[in-house]
Amino acid sequence: MRTVRLGKTGIEVPQNAFGALPIQRVSTEEAVSLLRNAYEGGMRFFDTARAYSDSEDKVGKAFEGMRDKVFISSKTMASDKKKFTEDLDTTLKNLKTDYIDIYQLHCAPRCYDENDELYLALVDAKKQGKVRHIGITAHKIGVAEEIIKSGLYETLQFPFSYLASDRDIELVKSCKEHDMGFIAMKGLSGGLLNNSKACMAFMSQYDALPIWGIQRQSELDEWLSFFENEVTMTDELKAVIDKDRKELLGEFCRGCGYCMPCTVDITINQCARMSQMIRRAPSQNWLTEHWQQEMMKIDSCIECGICKTRCPYELDIPTLLKKNLKDYKEILAGKEI
Ligand code: SF4
Ligand code: SF4
Questions:
Q1: How far, in Å, is the centroid of ligand 2 from the Cα of 46?
Q2: Residue 219 structural domain
Q3: At the N or C end, where does the chain have fewer CB atoms within 10 A?
Q4: Are residues 229 and 296 in the same domain?
Q5: pLDDT, tens digit, 9 for 90 and up, residues 262-280
Q6: Is ligand 1 within 6 A of the CB of residue 253?
């Protein structure tokens, strides 16, 4: 397995890491077992966040007594120093540790700099030894570019998958040039991509550390299998990627849910990408009475626009929803998919 060095942090780990967002949805026992199996299988880097409910607590339980064997990153969505300090102390307590390898400002809407109390709080936490390295996560490319240019952060976490644009790829290269670590979130593009081998092969071409979101042992087994059978790009995998890119590129919803809640309770993070999901998963799962009712809620969208102000990808959500509903109704009426 190829290793990745996270820039000036000096952290060097296998290019196959664990994103601990989905373990919120399983019991503590299952989560601890998944995390330990991931470690046994070769994973060394685990990414969690204060915003992922009990994820930090589960990570803490899994690695109690072996803290020095793993690297753990977490994040805070604090908007002021007081909340930052509270979050950091809670994270340390949850993780049962006295330091965090990388502490990140979560989903930054802009590049916080030396004039911001949040950035100063991060630097202070590093001085106190509670945080070894400082990082930041962003979803908007312009913000990410600004962050790299600032030279203030040691790592950047940004969505990166084989649906990446040339500008996204430049971002990864620019991180390397600035000796900054690049942590790749949403390597499966929010569940749209389902060929793990193609995802891994794509990642292996870059200095990017993918944190795969893992909820089940079967998913973990797929990622762990790459420790034994290293994946590199082949013509066959290139063909898979080209086909998916043709089908999925453009304005698409990543399913992140940042736009929610909707004023009239539309499940935007699923309904705005129904056309893709229904063609990529067993379609029957999306044609149940439940999903038909959810989709029909789109007709009640009042176009308040609140969701649009929250979408990091600046999608025109009401239009996207209507497009998906039109397609869905046609499928219900018998259109071939
Ligand atoms: S614009 Fe429509 S989808 Fe968006 S929050 Fe308002 S009602 Fe919901
Ligand atoms: S519409 Fe935007 S914010 Fe909402 S789930 Fe999709 S990508 Fe995320």
A1: 25
A2: 3-243
A3: C
A4: no
A5: 999 999 999 999 998 888 7
A6: no
The pLDDT tens digits for 189-209 are 888 888 999 999 999 999 999
| CA 178 – CA 180 distance, rounded (Å) | 5
Write down the pTM of the prediction.
0.86
Cα 154 to middle of ligand 2, angstroms: 27
**Of 213, 254, 251, 204, which Cα lies nearest the Cα of 232?**
204
Q: Which CA distances in Å does 274 have to 116, 186, 247, 318, 335?
A: 40, 18, 14, 14, 15
* Mean pLDDT of all residues in 37-56: 97
Question: Does a structural domain hold residue 262?
Answer: no
pLDDT for the residue 281: 67
- The rounded distance, in Å, linking the Cα atoms of 77 and 88 is 11
Determine whether the shortest distance from the Cβ of 139 to ligand 2 is under 6 A: no
Atom of ligand 1 nearest to the CA of 305: 1
Please tell me which residue, 118 or 109, carries the higher pLDDT value. Answer: 118
Mutate to test the pocket of ligand 1, among 268, 269, 322 (most ligand atoms within 8 A of CB): 268
Fill in the DSSP letter of residue 180.
B
274 shares its domain with 237:
no
Q: What is the CATH number of the domain that holds 180?
A: 3.20.20.100
**188 Cα–ligand 2 center, Å:** 15
As annotated, the active-site residues are 52
